[in-house]
């Protein structure tokens, strides 16, 4: 790829200083005069009809300024019982423990808590639909008549079945018949929480003109505006969303599902209201990642060529249906590798749990755990190195995807090869029984995702003092602002120091899509580049006018615009600005560049992780001793930032592999709603994480960049599972791979060996 | 948190007086258990008695015998070279609680009075033969730690009583102690099972005294007395350890809960007892 | 009922009247306006609320403000002042502490929410252990959860700061 000057530099984040000073303003830090504390009353029951709510004692408490229930929701917009957002306050039914039943705004937290305690709710408790297996049975209780699940009663199927789909191709029976090796297993991934350290937080201010201004940690400001508009029937022109710094999102803060509570409270109280979730609220009633049970059967020839795949994905959506997540999980299993025939069935079931949201490559970890564990078993049986098996079978350009489309050029081979040649894999694996008395094993897995092709727009304006401001409505989720500044500097031909990144809320910004789906650099990056190039062209036009030469005789660099043949004839940026803005000296209008894009080309991306573990042979405790992730990033706009994404995603994957699980009891109650017992990786739980940035062509991202944020999490849990299997000599098919599960697996193995 | 009254005594006498007049007041040492319980709605509090200014509770002395006030932090205990050398199990136990931040606030007294079955200072103090001094306006009484715990969350403290001091007798020559706990993550987490052991050896490395205490596997921290009796007069061998481990496992009374199953915990008691004894013996021989 | 609280925050003496149910975290953020210290869990598991009390890291979400009476508190906002105390000849008292500079330079900051707590835990570590090993750094930070970085660049930043503080 072409040499670049600023793009590709590992520059420190432009916002790092304000963050290390503690000056960056996050959503919980917002302070407004007369601001009230908002809190909601969570449903104690996973499934209940709400008979009466008596909030009179709460109303009467000194310091309580507003109390709301579903009765306060304006009738302006029709209620969609299938949308989680519309049930931000339970209407007639509470469908998950933790669902808001009522909310208060009070002068301080202690008063708000006392107010909640005084609200009296009469419930008629209903049977709890606890597991997806139970949910799909024809005689299962229904999650709620109001969610309108689309089960087909003629098929004697439960109404809790929200979605069913089948991908089918080829002659499955024949393909299995031709197989020399067949493996069939069932893989289970539990509910996990995205684990952002900053909880959901939103401040709303309903001002005199019936306009509401919201400060929120969301990944998509315009998405957040849409959600408020759709749930409360407020025209978008009357809503301003100012996105704040965000303390992690990972998909769980895509659209700000708690904002309507704050908005309604603010409207009723006529004072600003700040609502911040507790960690308990997060772990019980936010929007975690889905539990899934995948029965997967694959076949291969003895040379390792994959033949057939037959899978059933049962996904637990929680109380509200998703937008095709279960279908995606099924499809993804097939989309890395070539098969002659396949049948992939997905069933999405509703249960009485908080409904799921996105978590960094939604569903991909569920999918990868299944297929990547299974490929490991196949590799063992056919006697091939696991990476070699994958290289043999990966989908190459032109091969059919599960949607029967031809695959585009990807970097999958480069990624696998780079990892295979890295000492993390090319070195001999550790001896299984170590001198340290621990069992050692090494495993690898491949993951994939895409690059988000999102409609995006940006403005570049020439500012005073030789600065160029890039004005964006894009939420800076992952440090993208630094990379976007690098893109702008590169496109303009100036130094980083000239670029000023300006955050804009929904009033002042042009449209930005959600920061997620690995689309910020891929899409907004192109818009920024286009805006920068547009501004550059206009600066040349303006300078041509000033210097009285043709544009073709000019060049632009960090000093300004100069005549190529006579370098002493320069028009500085300051001068260009003055000539576009000064009342008396202006020769042209203010110089502004626009960029507006909708990327067309897909750019699937691949990441491969190799993990080494050491297992205590008695307690079953697993320690990760080495972790290496290779990823095709196209062109790393900022390698420091890209490495950080790989390391962070890999660590989340280790968490899913070994410790993380939201545990429910039979009454739909979360048994571990705190970070004491929902265990995420700490600094002592992971080693240094080696990263390999692979640069393969493909897609139409700026300077060859591809989506980076999501792929790193995808293969890690399977890599750890495969490493553990090598160490233990037995395989575990349920995440997380806890010491107790390892102990049981080792016991089973010992029994079998006798 | 909800509002409550706060009492701030400046001396032990004042604290006991206040406790006598306000029996509903709960003593607050580090707060790392109490405040969490209050925030999670598991404990309703009308008044707290802050112990920060009560100097008697922060004293620390080690001249052979170890005596320290109940408000001494576990960080201080874990960092003490005397405790690391002579009361190793206690240093390890204190050092295994939470994180640096928690250890800088949490106290041994709080750890004991909270009476969680998994309290990390309890098994070590049990094997080290600790006594606690309980004070009230009626006077003081000394109680062996074995008698202190009644059930999860409840100790023998009566209304108006405060845990004042913990006294650990000077260990005999050629003795050593150790503590080991299991959590799923590398270090951080409430113990799923834990074992403390203390042994005294004679010149031939035979065990003349042995104590084994189990944590997180019974309603209260528990001495495994049958396991202990198997060790007397014997030298440590693999076969003996297996017997002792199995016996300790049988003495444990674990439950299934969100952290682990009873079956796995019982198995862990076996494994950890063996490891704790090996550790204690190594310390006794001066090689640990 | 309020209590008179006399303490120092980032070397400034502060006298305020507070209700006893407020935690030190709430007083720092809501009354003193020092928003750098964050709440991630409120129950002592994440360390986002870490402050130094007389140089020792604690979870301010579990400390009552009244119990900070007479203590010296350092929040992230006080790190530049701390740096000036360490090296009086340098800087204006607003210059970044070496640990802050290292986090900026080495990619130790992503979303930044855990950062204030981690900086203070790191500063406290380096104050009593100027040459920590990788394991010692990880142990010192085990009470500070980070979900973004995977800790790698954080450890490297602490190592770089140790180096700079030793040589500088």
Q: What's the structural blueprint in terms of helices and strands?
A:
The complex is a heterotrimer of chains A (754), B (288) and C (168).
Chain A: H1 16-20, E1 36-42, E2 48-54, H2 56-60, E3 64-68, E4 93-94, E5 100-106, H3 109-118, E6 120-125, H4 132-135, E7 161-169, H5 172-177, E8 181-189, E9 201-206, E10 212-216, H6 221-232, E11 239-243, H7 259-269, E12 273-276, H8 279-285, E13 291-300, E14 306-318, H9 325-334, E15 341-350, H10 364-382, H11 386-393, H12 412-421, H13 423-426, E16 439-449, E17 456-462, E18 468-472, H14 480-492, E19 499-503, H15 520-547, E20 554-557, E21 560-563, E22 570-571, H16 573-581, E23 592-597, E24 605-615, E25 622-632, H17 639-658, E26 689-694, H18 716-728, H19 739-753
Parallel strand pairs in A: 1-12, 10-11, 14-15, 18-19, 25-26
Antiparallel strand pairs in A: 1-5, 2-4, 2-6, 3-5, 7-15, 8-13, 9-10, 9-12, 13-14, 16-24, 17-18, 17-23, 20-21, 21-22, 24-25
Helix pairs in contact in A: 6-7, 9-10, 10-18, 14-15, 17-18
Chain B: E1 5-7, H1 12-21, E2 25-28, H2 34-39, E3 47-50, E4 60-63, E5 65-69, H3 74-79, H4 81-86, H5 88-95, H6 100-103, H7 108-114, H8 122-127, E6 131-136, E7 139-144, E8 149-151, E9 154-155, E10 162-168, E11 175-182, E12 193-201, E13 207-215, E14 222-223, H9 225-231, H10 238-251, H11 262-284
Parallel strand pairs in B: 1-3, 2-3
Antiparallel strand pairs in B: 4-5, 5-10, 6-7, 6-10, 8-9, 11-12, 12-13, 13-14
Chain C: E1 3-9, E2 12-18, H1 24-31, E3 50-53, E4 56-59, E5 72-74, H2 79-86, H3 98-105, H4 115-128, H5 134-140, H6 152-167
Parallel strand pairs in C: 1-5
Antiparallel strand pairs in C: 1-2, 3-4, 3-5
Largest sheet of chain A: 7 strands, mixed
The figure for the number of domains of chain B is: 3
Number of distinct beta strands of chain B = 14
CATH superfamily of the largest domain in chain A: Aldehyde oxidase/xanthine dehydrogenase, molybdopterin binding domain
Discrete helix count of chain A = 19
Radius of gyration of chain B: 19 Å
What fraction of residues of chain A sit in β-strands?
Answer: 15-25%
What structural class do the secondary elements of chain B suggest? alpha+beta
**Strand tally of chain A, please?**
26
Helical/strand content category of chain A: alpha+beta
Rg of chain A, alpha carbons: 28 Å
Give the neighbour order of strands across the main sheet of chain B: 4-5-10-6-7
The first-to-last residue Cα distance of chain A is 59 Å
Mean pLDDT of chain B: 97
How far apart lie the N and C ends of chain B?
A: 46 Å
Q: Which strand-content bin applies to the residues of chain B?
A: 25-35%
Provide a count of the helices of chain B: 11
CATH class descriptor name of the largest domain in chain A? Alpha Beta
Q: Unreliable runs of chain A, pLDDT <50, ≥5 residues?
A: none
């Amino acid at each position: 790829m072409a040499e670049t000057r600023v793009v590709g530099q590992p520059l420190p984040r432009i916002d790092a200083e304000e963050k290390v000073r503690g000056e960056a303003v996050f959503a919980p830090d917002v302070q407004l005069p007369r601001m009230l504390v908002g809190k909601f009353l969570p449903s104690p029951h996973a499934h209940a009809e709400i008979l009466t709510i008596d909030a009179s004692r709460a109303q009467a408490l000194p310091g309580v300024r507003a109390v709301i229930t579903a009765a306060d929701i304006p009738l302006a917009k029709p209620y969609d019982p299938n949308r989680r957002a519309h049930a931000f306050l339970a209407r007639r039914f509470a469908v998950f423990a933790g669902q808001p039943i009522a909310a208060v705004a009070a002068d301080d937290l202690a008063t708000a808590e006392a107010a909640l305690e005084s609200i009296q709710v009469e419930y008629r408790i209903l049977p709890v639909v606890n597991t997806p297996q139970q949910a799909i049975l024809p005689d299962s209780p229904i999650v709620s008549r109001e969610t309108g699940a689309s089960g087909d009663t003629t098929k004697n199927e439960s109404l809790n079945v929200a979605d069913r789909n089948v991908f089918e191709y080829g002659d499955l029976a024949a393909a299995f018949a031709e197989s020399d090796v067949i493996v069939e297993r069932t893989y289970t991934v539990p509910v996990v929480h995205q684990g952002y350290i900053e909880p959901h937080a939103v401040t709303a201010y309903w001002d005199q003109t019936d306009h509401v201004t919201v400060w929120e940690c969301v990944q998509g400001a315009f998405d957040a505006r849409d959600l408020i508009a759709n749930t409360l029937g407020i025209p978008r022109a009357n809503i301003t969303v100012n996105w704040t710094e965000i303390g992690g999102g990972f998909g769980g803060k895509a659209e700000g599902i708690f904002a309507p509570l704050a908005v309604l409270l603010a409207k009723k109280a006529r004072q600003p209201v700040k609502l911040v979730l507790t960690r308990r609220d997060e772990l019980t009633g936010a929007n975690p990642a889905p539990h899934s049970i995948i029965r997967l059967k694959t076949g291969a020839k003895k040379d390792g060529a994959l033949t057939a795949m037959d899978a059933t994905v049962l996904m637990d959506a929680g109380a509200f249906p998703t937008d095709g997540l279960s279908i995606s999980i099924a499809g993804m299993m097939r989309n890395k590798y070539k098969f002659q025939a396949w049948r992939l069935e997905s069933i999405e079931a509703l249960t009485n749990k908080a409904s799921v949201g996105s978590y960094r490559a939604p569903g991909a970890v569920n999918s990868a755990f299944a297929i990547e564990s299974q490929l490991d078993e196949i590799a063992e049986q056919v006697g091939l190195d696991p990476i070699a098996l994958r290289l043999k079978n990966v989908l190459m350009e032109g091969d059919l995807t599960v949607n029967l489309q031809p695959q585009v050029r990807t970097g999958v081979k480069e990624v696998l090869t780079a990892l295979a040649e890295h000492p993390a894999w090319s070195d001999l694996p550790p001896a299984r029984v170590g001198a340290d008395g621990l069992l050692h094993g090494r495993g690898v897995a491949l993951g994939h995702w895409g690059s988000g092709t999102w409609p995006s727009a940006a403005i570049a304006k020439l500012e005073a003092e030789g600065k160029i401001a890039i004005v964006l409505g894009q939420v800076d989720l992952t440090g993208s602002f630094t990379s976007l500044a690098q893109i702008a500097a590169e496109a303009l031909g100036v130094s980083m120091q000239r670029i000023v990144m300006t955050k804009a809320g929904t009033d002042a910004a042009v449209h930005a899509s959600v920061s997620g789906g690995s689309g910020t650099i891929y899409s907004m990056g192109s818009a920024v580049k286009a805006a920068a190039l547009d501004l550059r062209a206009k600066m040349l036009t303006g300078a041509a006018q000033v210097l009285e030469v043709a544009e073709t005789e000019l060049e632009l660099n960090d000093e300004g615009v100069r005549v190529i043949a006579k370098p002493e004839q320069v028009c500085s940026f300051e001068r260009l600005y003055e000539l576009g803005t000064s009342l008396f000296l202006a020769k042209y209008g203010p110089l502004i560049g626009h960029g507006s894009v909708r990327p067309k080309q897909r750019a699937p991306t691949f990441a491969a992780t190799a993990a080494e573990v050491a297992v205590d042979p008695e307690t079953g405790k697993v320690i990760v001793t080495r972790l290496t992730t290779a990823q095709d990033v196209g062109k790393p706009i900022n390698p420091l930032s890209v490495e950080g994404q790989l390391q962070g995603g890999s660590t989340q994957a280790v968490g899913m592999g070994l410790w993380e699980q939201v545990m429910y009891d039979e009454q739909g109650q979360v048994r571990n709603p705190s970070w004491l017992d929902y265990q995420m990786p700490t600094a002592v739980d992971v080693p240094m994480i080696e990263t390999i940035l692979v640069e393969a062509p493909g897609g139409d991202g700026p300077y060859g960049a591809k989506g980076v944020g999501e792929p790193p999490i995808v293969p890690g849990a399977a890599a750890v599972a495969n490493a553990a299997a090598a160490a233990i000599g037995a395989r575990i098919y349920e995440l997380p791979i806890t010491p107790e599960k390892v102990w049981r697996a080792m016991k089973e193995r010992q029994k079998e060996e006798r | 948190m909800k509002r409550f009254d706060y009492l701030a005594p400046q001396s032990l006498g004042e604290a006991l007086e206040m406790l006598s007049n306000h029996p509903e007041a709960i003593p607050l040492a580090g707060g790392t258990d109490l405040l969490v319980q209050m925030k999670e709605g598991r404990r309703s509090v009308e008044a707290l008695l802050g112990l920060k200014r009560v100097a008697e509770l922060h004293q620390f002395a080690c001249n052979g015998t170890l005596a320290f006030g109940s408000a001494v932090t576990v960080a201080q205990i874990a960092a003490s070279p005397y405790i690391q050398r002579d009361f190793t199990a206690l240093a390890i136990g204190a050092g295994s609680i939470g994180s640096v931040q928690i250890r800088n606030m949490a106290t041994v007294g709080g750890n004991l009075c909270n009476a969680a079955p998994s309290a990390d200072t309890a098994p070590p103090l049990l094997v080290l033969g600790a006594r606690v001094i309980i004070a009230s306006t009626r006077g003081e009484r000394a109680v062996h730690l074995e008698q202190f715990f009644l059930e999860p969350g409840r100790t023998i403290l009566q209304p108006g009583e405060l845990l004042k001091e913990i006294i650990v007798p000077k260990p005999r020559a050629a003795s050593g102690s150790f503590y080991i706990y299991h959590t799923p993550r590398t270090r951080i987490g409430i113990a799923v099972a834990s074992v403390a052991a203390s042994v005294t050896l004679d010149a031939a490395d035979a065990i003349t005294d042995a104590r084994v205490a189990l944590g997180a596997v019974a309603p209260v921290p528990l001495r495994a007395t049958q396991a202990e009796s198997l060790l007397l007069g014997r030298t440590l061998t693999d076969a003996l350890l297996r017997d002792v481990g199995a016996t300790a496992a049988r003495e444990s009374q674990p439950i299934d809960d969100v952290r682990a199953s009873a079956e796995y915990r019982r198995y862990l008691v076996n494994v950890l007892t063996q490891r704790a004894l090996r550790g204690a013996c190594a310390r006794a021989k001066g090689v640990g | 009922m309020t209590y008179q609280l006399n303490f120092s925050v980032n070397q400034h003496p502060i006298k305020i009247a507070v209700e006893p149910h407020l935690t030190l975290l709430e007083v720092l953020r809501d009354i003193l306006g020092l928003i750098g210290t964050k709440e991630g869990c409120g129950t002592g598991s994440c360390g986002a609320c870490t402050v130094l009390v007389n140089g020792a890291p604690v979870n301010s979400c579990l400390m009552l403000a009244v119990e900070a009476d007479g203590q010296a508190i350092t929040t992230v906002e006080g790190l530049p002042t701390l740096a000036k105390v360490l090296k009086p000849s340098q800087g204006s008292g607003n210059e970044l502490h070496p640990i802050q500079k290292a986090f900026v330079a080495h990619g130790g900051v992503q979303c930044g929410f855990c950062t204030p707590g981690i900086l203070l835990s790191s500063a406290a570590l380096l104050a009593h252990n100027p040459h920590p090993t990788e394991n010692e750094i990880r142990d010192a930070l085990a009470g500070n959860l980070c979900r973004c970085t995977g800790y790698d660049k954080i450890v490297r930043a602490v190592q770089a700061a140790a180096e700079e503080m030793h040589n500088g």
